[in-house]
Design a protein that fits this description.
Largest sheet: 6 strands, mixed
Order of helices and strands: EEEEEEEEEEEHEHEHEHHEEEHEHEEH
Strand content: 25-35%
Structural class: alpha+beta
Radius of gyration: 22 Å
Number of domains: 4
Shape: globular
CATH topology of the largest domain: Aminopeptidase
CATH class of the largest domain: Alpha Beta
Helix content: 25-40%
CATH architecture of the largest domain: 3-Layer(aba) Sandwich
Strand order of the largest sheet: 15-16-17-18-20-19
Number of strands: 20
Length: about 350
């Protein structure tokens, strides 16, 4: 089994694909969609269309007759030109979700229009390092549009000063050019990141032990087998249990089973194993929205232990996950923001 952190750049079905392995286990997966599908992160100039009464939003006109949905009405009138960023994948038969909150993200920096100020990632804790990065960023942003803010990402710990400064300057100049391009019909101004760009931008910190860019890398490192497993609803758990992850039109249903041992101890063990692996499974499968988990039967007194595990497991997802808790029927509910197309759809 491959050890350490390994980033693989390969292709699937003729499309760019990337994988992040940690000690041989698949932790992240990105696959470009087929054709010219709209990618999350893309920035468009759009024209406001009609408000959607009762839903607190407004439709906007995208290029080529496309339609986006903006969950905002205040201060926007039909016919107004706007700059928006695609915030999530487009679901079949629905408008593309967009936001007026733009982010220009690269490996070391994120430029934030209309959110001025300088922030350094909290993952960078050493005060001298934070101060040095703040000074570097201040110099790189000198003379920039005062509407632009900046976030220094944790990957800056592994970059040299020239790389970081160049990255900040490139994002600053890109944001300035896009913000000035408000006149005209609906148009794509900046494409969203593809699989290989996503891997370089978001998975390079901490620095991987190996980056391999070649056809056949997925097969050589066992990624294809792990992808096949993700296309099955059944997930084996340590101790002989398993969980079933099955998306429906309304929600994602998860059922946890202990296997032949139905004792309370076996149930708690299976439930803890399921809770720890569930964030990774949902992320890799591209599943989100409302999620309902039917954990294996266990005494109510053990719920507090399990809930601690759930909260720790989803801590890395931050605001993208909202944990609602237990229902009166003993199910556990939460919501997860859809941040990518479902794996089954991508590989259909």
């Amino acid at each position: 089994m491959t050890s350490g952190r390994v980033v693989l750049l390969d292709s699937l079905k003729g499309r760019d694909a990337a994988a992040l392995l940690v000690d041989g286990h698949l932790e992240e997966l990105a696959i470009d969609p087929e054709g010219d599908s709209i990618l999350p992160g893309a920035i468009y100039r759009v024209v406001a269309d009609r408000p959607m009464k009762g839903q607190g939003g407004i439709f906007v006109k995208l290029p080529n007759g496309g339609s986006g949905f903006l969950r905002q009405i205040s201060g926007i009138s039909p016919g107004q030109r706007l700059l928006v960023q695609v915030s999530a994948p487009t679901e079949p038969g629905k408008a593309t979700p967009v936001s007026t909150r733009l982010l220009f993200k690269s490996r070391f920096a994120i430029v934030t229009p209309d959110a001025p100020g300088l922030n350094v990632s909290r993952a960078i804790r050493e005060e001298d390092t934070r101060a040095a990065l703040s000074d570097l960023a201040t110099q790189a942003m000198a003379g920039a549009d005062p509407r632009l803010g900046l976030i220094i990402r944790s990957a800056a710990l592994e970059g040299d000063e020239d790389e970081i400064a160049a990255d900040i300057t490139a994002m600053r100049d890109l944001a300035t050019a896009v913000l000035a391009d408000l006149d005209g019909p609906p148009e794509l101004l900046l494409d969203g990141p593809g699989a290989h760009e996503t891997a370089w931008r978001d998975w390079a910190s901490p620095a991987p032990d190996m980056v391999e860019d070649r056809t056949g890398g997925f097969e050589a490192h066992g990624v294809l087998e792990q992808i096949d497993a993700l296309l099955s609803p059944r997930v084996a758990l340590t101790g002989g249990g398993h969980m079933m992850i099955e998306p429906t039109r309304a929600l994602v249903a998860v059922d946890v089973n202990t296997g032949p041992d139905t004792s309370p101890a076996a149930a708690l063990k299976a439930n803890i194993a399921a809770a720890r692996d569930l964030p990774r499974q949902l992320r890799l499968r591209g599943l989100g929205g409302q999620v309902v988990v039917d954990f294996a039967p266990q005494p109510k007194k053990d719920r507090a232990i399990l809930e601690q595990v759930i909260r720790a497991a989803f801590k890395g997802d931050g605001p993208d996950v909202t944990l609602a808790g237990w229902t009166t029927l003993g199910l556990y509910e939460f919501t997860r923001r859809r941040d990518r197309l479902a794996l089954a759809e991508l590989l259909a």
